[in-house]
Amino acid sequence: MRFLLTSAGIKNPSIYDALVDLLGKPIAESNALCIPTAVYAKRGGADMAWRFITGRASTPLCELGWKSLGVLELTALPSAGEEQWVSMVEETDVLLVGGGDPMYLSYWMQQSGLAELLPSLRREMVYVGVSAGSMVMAPKIGEDFVRWKPPTGGDRTLGLVDFSMFPHLDHKNMPDNSMADAERWAAEIQGPAYAIDDQTAIKVSDGALDVVSEGHWKLFTP
What we know:
single chain, Rossmann fold, seven-stranded mixed sheet, 8 helices, 10 strands, 27% helix
């Protein structure tokens, strides 16, 4: 599986080109499944989920012109049974995972069985995350980002990549997302960590990592 981990979706031509490169074919020839689950742990989540799915959010992803677009709602999967959804995930070209609450998303990825399935998916499949959808791939998100608390507590997430992410760096509507805040957060992570703004994404393919940016970012190392 390949990853394009963004702060705010496909916000500029550089990130768009990185997505097409990972897919290995045009977006118009690629089948996608979008996952809105993370947003339901936030106030107004139902409206935000609709905006994400219909391409009306401020995080461009679902509206890019996919050959087909389906919705994979993680909270429904445990009751549906694996025979209803696993083959659909295995056959798609890209998973589009929206933002919201990273711990809530991590919990439902595990409860649904998707977290267990992801490492076995074919090499050519692409995972595209927005904000929480990116953060959940890290080993941990840091206590600063824990809002919804899982039954087991803590801040550990799926660990499918070996670094953590601080999204929306220096966002004008997020006063707690300054570089100074990111530096304090990184000191608690005690592992590789990236602070990225909304014009930046992290591309991971075949073990190689590239930062794709038309904005600014910073790598923190222990």
